[in-house]
Write a structure and sequence with these properties.
This protein is α/β, with parallel strands linked by helices. The strands form 4 sheets. It has a 10-stranded mixed beta sheet with strand order 9-7-5-2-10-1-11-14-18-19, with helices on both faces. Strands 12, 13, 15, 16 and 17 form a 5-stranded mixed beta sheet that branches. Strand 15 and strand 16 form a beta hairpin. The chain binds 6-O-phosphoryl inosine monophosphate and magnesium ion (MG). Magnesium ion binds next to loops. 6-O-phosphoryl inosine monophosphate binds next to helix 4.
């Protein structure tokens, strides 16, 4: 620790939550710094599955304080549903264990409505968003129109701004052929939420800096991933926040120099949900097999994920951008029984070998993978707890990923439960 960051090195759904849950055993605070309810973080504790969208997975450790940082976009309805779900699942959360930034932006009904309306207007050019209002909420933030958590407590200003925003958004929705949102209901909901959220609200940036000064151990939980980062991902097929480690200081107030350890999480293969270029996608039987064995269906939307092979160009890019100390490799067990394994080591773009991720979607769409093939391995890996327990073929594959991606693979997960991993 003192400040460890866990970020996705691919297109999301790498198993970040599983790694955060594991590392949170040594953390005092777990911090979300970006994203919102588009996130689907699944943790399995003692055979019981918990799915979280907004609240950091640190909430599952009694000794941990969870922090929703200023860089997150907060849907209060989802927050309250999640608190209720946690209480029902045996994880009641009192306000001392969950601090929510007074500066986080709120997701309002018009954000969800605009998300859906923009997507249908895009037609074939749709992004495939999760429909949680994420892009429109961040758009309002940078257009100086956002409503923040602290605004809930200044009623006259809240009323004026919500009503004026609703009027403007309803004009946009009308132009897109979508029904308007009910401004009075939106305002009433916010007023009804105020007292309920108040005990959780904090200047979290100051809180975190105080915690660091006091010697607390922090764990930052990335949502989405480097290739979905609004600045560094495969734009415009991205999510609207800075998901890479570069988003940590801005989205939490943690000083950049306080970060001591950076872990990039990658699956032993690749998946992507929604639209956008995916050079190592495997649309045939092998991809289908990965989807079924890996249960690659979205946590937030239930959509089947597109599946493919490990893309070392993409992983190298993420490792380099994040200056990762190490890689945590997940779902290696899923590949057991495949006849052959592949790694995309470079792209062939118009007959030219390209080792770096190009910026433009056109080049990425034209990119043909340069494959390196490996013999498959057999067996049930879920009981392996030491690197020596792995079949030789699995070890060779991990070695190759490490070489190609450019950072040591220190942790390999072989199952969803807390104990199902090994270190190397
Ligand atoms: P976790 O944290 C995978 C994708 C969506 C879409 C694009 C934009 O579980 O890894 P948005 O609703 O954010 O505007 O959608 O980003 N996306 C994710 N894909 N995992 C996620 O989160 C994602 N969050 C957003 O599918 O392509
Ligand atoms: Mg997910």
């Amino acid at each position: 620790m003192p400040v460890t960051c866990v970020v996705g090195a691919q297109w999301g759904d790498e198993g970040k939550a599983r790694i955060v849950d594991l590392l949170s055993g040594d953390a005092d605070l777990v911090v979300r710094y970006q994203g919102g309810a588009n996130t689907g973080h699944t943790v399995v504790v003692n055979g019981k599955t918990v799915k979280l969208h907004l609240i950091p997975v640190g909430v599952l450790r009694e000794g941990c304080v969870s922090v929703v940082g200023n860089g997150c976009v907060l849907d209060l309805k989802v927050l309250f549903e999640e608190l209720e779900m946690l209480a029902r699942s045996g994880y009641p959360v009192d306000p001392a264990r969950l601090r929510v930034s007074d500066r986080a932006h709120l997701v309002l009904p018009y954000h969800r409505a605009l998300d859906a309306a923009y997507e249908s207007a895009r037609g074939a050019g749709r992004i495939g968003t999760t429909g949680r209002g994420i892009g429109p909420c961040y758009s309002d933030k940078v257009a100086y129109k956002g409503i923040r958590v602290c605004d809930l407590f200044d009623d006259p200003s809240l009323e004026a701004r919500v009503l004026s925003n609703c009027e403007e958004k309803n004009r946009h929705l009308g132009a897109l052929g979508a029904p308007p949102v009910d401004a009075a209901a939106a305002l009433a909901d916010l007023r009804a939420s105020r007292d309920r959220v108040a005990p959780f609200v904090e200047d979290t940036a100051a809180f975190l800096r105080d915690a660091i000064a006091a010697g607390s151990r922090l764990l930052c939980e990335g949502a989405q991933a480097v290739l979905l980062d609004v600045d560094h991902g495969t734009y415009p097929y991205v999510s609207a926040s800075n998901a890479s480690v570069l988003g940590v200081p801005a989205g939490s107030g943690i000083p950049p120099r306080a970060i001591t350890r950076i872990v990039c999480v990658a699956k032993a293969y690749a998946t992507r949900v929604g639209e956008g270029p995916f050079p190592s996608e495997e649309t045939g039987a092998e991809g289908q097999r990965i989807r079924e064995r890996g249960r690659e269906f979205g946590t937030t939307t239930g959509r089947p994920r597109r599946c493919g092979w490990f893309d070392a160009v993409a992983a190298r890019y993420s490792v380099s951008l994040c200056d990762a100390d190490e890689i945590a490799l997940t779902k290696l067990d899923i590949l057991a029984g495949m006849e052959r394994l592949r790694i995309c080591t470079a792209y062939d773009i118009g007959g030219r070998r390209v080792d770096r991720l190009p910026a433009d979607v056109g080049s990425l769409r034209a990119a043909k993978p340069v494959w390196k093939d490996f013999p498959g391995f057999e067996g049930d890996l879920s009981g392996c707890r030491n690197i020596a327990d792995l079949p030789a073929g699995a070890r060779a594959f991990v070695d190759a990923i490490e070489r190609e991606a450019g950072a040591p693979v220190r942790l390999v997960s072989v199952g969803a439960d807390r104990a199902q991993y090994l270190t190397r």
